[in-house]
């Protein structure tokens, strides 16, 4: 089939690679001018490892495995060590892989067919579903008909808005925000540091390619344009104004100077169905679990695999194929989304008492590994 995939993140790349191996002709669009490689390290977990092996990518991922989360040091308000993070409660299995985002994106992009029609700085401006095909008009001035359109364009999905309806109908704010910024080369020999305070986590993270400052903060929903750098910086200054604990002001100032500052809601996507006509959604566009779940990468990879398998199992019957894809993917999604309530309490304790309780829990986790 002739298939259009919108969004070249993890879900879009995985879906394209799986579809191409099944013999489909795929065009891949990305609104940005290049692959997004900035961000904190990410995890490939559980059953998804078998799917990565099926793509022939496991050895490459394993060769680039890192231990940023496993070796993070929690500190108190004075910078004194509390505990080293245990990955015991994070992993599905001992085989789970943590990898730097640039490495994962390079490996997934390398899995695409050499002649892939990959268009950067391009998105959809209009889409019209018909009885046999879906007609799509692109921002580069071209238009064409496709057998299937796959929306893999994230929690703020344009395709979801165009086909299913406005974002507020499907995306639920979780009462927290994520922020992240690359601030320079990694500090050799230094661990990552994490600091908890009531209502927020702030971290100084070391990855193979960069030093990152980032974390989470509890907050009512803000009425700002997250694509407006000035508005984002003003919001972050307000959140941390007057906080003199640990190295907070120093790190916030460094973060605000970064041209790569990222700030967005922690949110989840809930939809009764992920398909309509010839259009189907994968990844965060369909079922975001939020960054707090730590499972977005795995869900993006499994979505591409299950969708491809379902299309092969039901040739000529998209409704049946999309139904099977959803039936196989939803249990993974429901597990990931249900995990987030506990993750919010662990990563963003609401009170001083909750911070101390989390510190004690971390000490116990560390002691259990000795």
Tell me the CATH superfamily of the largest domain. FAD/NAD(P)-binding domain
User: How far apart are the termini?
Assistant: 55 Å
Shape verdict: globular
User: How confident overall, as mean pLDDT?
Assistant: 91
Which percent bin holds the helix content?
25-40%
Backbone structural class: alpha/beta
* Radius of gyration over C-alpha positions, nearest whole angstrom: 21 Å
How many distinct helices? 11
Q: H/E series, N to C?
A: EHEEHHEEEHEEEEEHEEEEHHEEEHHHH
Query: Which architecture of the largest domain does the CATH hierarchy give at level 2?
Result: 3-Layer(bba) Sandwich
The portion of residues forming beta strands comes to 25-35%
* Topology-level CATH name of the largest domain: FAD/NAD(P)-binding domain
Describe this structure as you would to a colleague:
- This protein has eleven helices and 18 strands.
- The protein folds into two domains: 2-67 and 97-169 and 268-340, FAD/NAD(P)-binding domain, CATH 3.50.50; 173-267 and 347-368, D-Amino Acid Oxidase, Chain A, domain 2, CATH 3.30.9.
- The chain is an alpha/beta fold.
- Helix 1 runs parallel beside helix 4 (101-110), helix 6 (229-240) packs antiparallel against helix 7 (248-256) and helix 9 (296-313) runs antiparallel to helix 10.
Q: What's the structural blueprint in terms of helices and strands?
A:
Elements: E1 2-6, H1 10-21, E2 25-30, E3 42-44, H2 48-54, H3 58-63, E4 72-75, E5 81-84, E6 97-99, H4 101-110, E7 117-120, E8 124-129, E9 134-138, E10 143-146, E11 148-151, H5 158-163, E12 171-184, E13 192-197, E14 200-206, E15 211-218, H6 229-240, H7 248-256, E16 262-269, E17 275-276, E18 279-281, H8 284-287, H9 296-313, H10 318-347, H11 352-368
Parallel strand pairs: 1-2, 1-11, 2-7, 4-13, 11-18
Antiparallel strand pairs: 3-6, 4-5, 8-9, 9-10, 12-15, 12-16, 13-14, 14-15, 17-18
Helix pairs in contact: 1-4, 1-9, 2-9, 6-7, 9-10
